[in-house]
Design brief:
This protein is elongated. The longest helix is centred in the C-terminal third of the chain and has 25 residues, at 81-105. Helices cover 60% and strands 6% of the residues. α1 crosses α3 (50-62) and α2 packs across α3 (50-62). The chain is built from five helices and two strands; from the N terminus they run αααββαα. By secondary structure, it is mostly helical. The protein has a two-stranded antiparallel ribbon with strand order 1-2.
Length: 125
């Protein structure tokens, strides 16, 4: 499982791990009942603390994306894909709302903002 951590990000590492796993679950890259790497294995692979990966998994369990089966490990839980997607769309809307606000107060046109989004979107592909 590929997870990319940015040490220069303001987002805590456990949150980066959690969000990337959520995206993999929502996109069905990680399937229902699939076994996730152990806390120690993931920590070793990502070169981070076991506490960090434990926190990420605990958050995923709280949010219903992952289930913990004692003595067996962490598995992808059955999720409501529509509800999960709605959650992600809400996050996107909040970010875009902030971007639009900054654009408006700085007299950046809608056309320029749309072009910026197009460029950023293409770079991610």
């Amino acid at each position: 499982m590929e997870i990319i951590i940015s040490n220069s990000s303001d987002v805590p590492i456990y949150e980066q791990i959690k969000e990337q796993i959520k995206v993999k679950i929502i996109s069905n890259e990680l399937k229902e009942n699939e076994l996730l790497p152990s806390i120690r294995t993931l920590a070793k692979d990502l070169r981070c603390s076991v506490i960090t990966t434990k926190n990420a998994y605990e958050e995923l369990v709280k949010e219903g994306y992952v289930k913990n089966v004692p003595s067996k490990g962490f598995y992808v839980a059955k999720i409501n894909v529509d509800l999960a997607l709605e959650e992600q769309l809400n996050k996107i809307e909040n970010f875009l709302d902030k971007a639009v606000h900054i654009a408006i107060i700085n007299n950046v046109s809608k056309k320029i903002l749309k072009n910026m989004i197009d460029i950023l979107y293409e770079e991610e592909k």
